[in-house]
Amino acid sequence: MTQPDEQDGPPRSLIIAAVGVAVAAVIVVLTFAATRQAAPPEKPVAIAAAPAPQADSPPCAALLAALPEHLGDYRRAQAVEPVPAGAAAWQADPDADAVILRCGLDRPADFVVGTPLQVVDDVQWFEVNAYGVSTWFAVDRGTYVALTLPSGSGPTPIQLISKAIAKTMPAQPLDPGPPR
Fold first, then answer.
1. Using an 8 Å Cβ cutoff, are 86 and 79 in contact?
2. Residue 70 in 3-state DSSP?
3. Could you give the CA distance from residue 148 to residue 93 in angstroms, rounded to a whole number?
4. DSSP state letters, 108-157
5. Euclidean distance between CA atoms 170 and 77, whole angstroms
6. Where are the transmembrane segments (predicted)?
7. Which residue, of 27, 69, 90, 152, has the greatest Cβ tally within 10 A?
C-alpha cells in the first residue's frame, strides 16, 4: 500500500524546471540560427565616373531625392567613395550586378533623328546595348538620365525610375542629334 505523501515519479517542480530549461535551449538555438542566416554584409558598389556636366543641377538633385529605396528585388546600395555626382545604385544581393542611375549626362551620341524610343510611364527611353549590359537613357527631359540594368532585372526598375523622373522632371521636346 502506498503512503499518501509518496510520489510516483520526480517532483513536479523538477519537471517544470526541466521543461523551462528545454524551452530556453530551443530559443537560444533558434536565435543563433536566425543571426547566422542574416543577410551578408553589404559591399559598396563601384560606380564608374562618366561625364555628367549637369549632375549637380536642381533637376538631378530633385530626382535623387525622390528615388525609391527599392526597385523590386533591388535595394538601395551604398556606393564606393568618391561617388560620382548625380549617381545612385541598387543591388539585389552583394554579389549581384547593380542597377546604376546617372543623372546630368550629355546627350547620348547614338540618340539621333529616327532613333526608336520606348515609352515607360510617360518617359521616353532610348536603349543602348553594349558588352551584355543594357543602358536606357531618358531623352525627353531637360536633363538626360541613364539607367544601366543587369540582364534579368525585369521591368520593375525602369518603371519605378520612370515614375520618379515623371514626378520630378518636366517633359521637354526631344532634341536628338542629326542623322548620321
1. no
2. strand
3. 17
4. PTT-BTT---EEETTEEEEEEEETTEEEEEE-SBSSEEEEEE-TT--SHH
5. 27
6. 14-34
7. 90
Query: What pLDDT, on the 0 to 100 scale, is given for residue 10?
Result: 74
Position 106, amino acid: D
Rounded Cα distance, 101 and 74, in Å: 13
Q: Which residue has the cell 536603349?
A: 127
Q: What integer is the mean pLDDT of 1-6?
A: 54
High-pLDDT (> 90) share of the chain, %: 65
Q: How far apart are CA 63 and CA 29, in angstroms?
A: 46
CATH of 58-168, one of 1.10.10, 3.40.1000, 3.40.720, 2.60.120: 3.40.1000
Instruction: Give the separation between CA 103 and CA 22, rounded to whole angstroms.
Output: 57
Residue 36 has a pLDDT of 63
Strand order across the 118-120 sheet: 70-71, 74-77, 87-91, 99-105, 144-149, 133-138, 123-130, 118-120
Residues 102/86, Cβ–Cβ less than 8 Å: yes
